[in-house]
Amino acid sequence: MESKVESAVGMSRKWDAREAGREVAESAIRQLYEPPSFFLLFSTIHYEKYGGFQEFLNGVWDVLPKGTPLVGGTVAGFMNNYGCYTRGATALAISHPSIDVSIGIGHNTKRNPKKAARQCVEMIKKQSKKVDFYLEFISGPVIPTFPMIGKQTVIKSKIFGSLMKKMIPMLWESNMGTDRADEVLEYLASHLDKPLIGSVCYDDGKLFKNYQFVDEKILKNATILLGISGDIIPEFHTITPLTTRDRKINISVAKDRRTVTKINGKKATQELCKILNWNQNNIKEVEKFYSQAFYYPFCYHKNDKIHAAMLGLILGETVYFANRIESDELELFGLTGKKIISDCKDVFAKHNRLMFGVMCETYIETLGNQIYTIKDMIDDSTKDYLILFSGGESIIYDDMVPHHLYESINTLNF
Amino acid sequence: MGGDGIKDDPIALVLDDLMRLDDILACMVARRNMISVMPSSEAFKPEANQIWDNIHRAMDDVFGVIAAYSQIGLGEMEFRLQDYEVLFYVFPDTENALVAIVPALANKGLLEVEMENARREILKILEGPTKESGASKKDDEVLVNV
User: A343 is in which domain, residue-wise?
Assistant: First the structure.
């Protein structure tokens, strides 16, 4: 990267939304000699209760030069020059005269992911600008509210489960349920010819709400695409530090590629509980273990990448996965702190001027305060950096095959 | 219980920040048989009050272990009692710890990160006024506001 390119990481831990917005912008901008070419803005979900996200964004625009392209959204946490946080706001401002950006926005991603992706692509193409790579921020999953049951992820009753299964398309209509980020990415990959790194917006793991930011607007169910060109071509890196547990299963999956009706020829829920040693009759135990299932996901391979199939809902006898499963055979993997740390050394030990990255929220869940071990690695190698903890990670690079991943770590290194 | 901390005590303000997180039901800086600092501006959440007596008794036993092992590197401890977990973040080489009560099914990894940040903040406060509050690589950068 040329020396003239400036980058600055902003940060605020203030609770008041407007004050935090001002501070996160000011702390970034004051490190730059020139106005930013674009501004990436992220925050945890907390500002919803402390003034709201519109006020947060208003605070940013109290400081940020008018017309600066701004994109971002809510995240579970972030790691930057200053520390690791699961509460607060952060920003990355980049400035260089050669940088040009275009922004695409797609709405109602859960209702119609293809249409949302098409809206993004059309907006980007209308701006007729050269693009070298893309950043994508997409609305994350929202746990559905089922009539009479409320917000549930595990429904024991066969009758209710079967009924709820039929209601999933209706949930998408109301922009709830799984994020469908894999479908958005697939469309983007077939219409764009440059690499991309993406992040699924998230809250604090409760999966109630998440937001996307674009210029002065707060959006709820959108895909935001930022096309960037200029003298800042990054290197892409991606790893999925999972370890195989040497256990394979065969699944019967419906046409939607998400609804698994049978595992190893037996009723899906019953067999899943048996394989994972969950007591199916104890709904509290199933709920407890369900919340920990992200540490040992079932996965399949696609173009040498490990794709985790994320448990979405247990609906009576059916297991519903959050993303589409592109194989009838899955393998059980596990996530361990040791493997995460050792694989992170490969990605983060390389010296960089600037790094922007997306890590699965599961890493911060798994490592807790030990996440500082990874921060220490990056501190030794990289001047400015911002790593987001997200609800899913998208990447298109080298062979241009789209990978919507979970449990992965993707970075752009400059 | 709660609200007994000294107003403007910087450590109490760090605890206030933790108390604003939905899943932190109570927090304090404590040692065996003694609570040193409580949050200044917010009482414990009602859910914690219901189980406080039992947790308090169990805490004192845990502090016995902390006293015995903090000198050889005991960093964190936790226990689960009924539907709650109690997290202890030990201040190195002391018998004191930052303590938080959280729901057993809380998203604990996220809370642990903020517990660690709070421990670091408190350690800086204890080290003295010459130290800046917040983590930064560069001297001239904006720091974290607490």
Answer: 6-141+177-239+338-413
